[in-house]
Fold:
Amino acid sequence: MNYNRVILIGRLTRDPELKYTTSGTAVATFTLAINRRYNREEADFIDIVAWRQQAEYCANYGSKGRLMMVEGRLQLRTYETQEGQKRKVAEVVSDELKFLDKQGTSQGSHPASAGRKDADGWDDLGREVRLEDIDIMEKPDEDDIPF
Structure:
């Protein structure tokens, strides 16, 4: 039996980027910063792809710093750059996503930046962020886990 399931909880490193395919299907891309369990000074940055209604939901309500849970599958794909170089990408394709904080309570989230894409100067997925820009959470009590 094969099983490919990923569940992540982390903070958005920037506002989600919403695009549409030529057939009109919505697709959103974003990155989650996920603190490591035993070393809070280190984090992993995972690229996420959401499709259709999830993509629009994420783009409408997601903003840099919001706490989010993503459940989906790990996908590896390759592509070729304009220069002809082959690249490999690992990303999570979302099946379900939820925001775990209230809108407007995340750091970096404020009305002035709500309508601006890349207001923080980020152009590409996977770009590094400084740890000072991430709200590092303490380990929650078992009663505080939202699922």
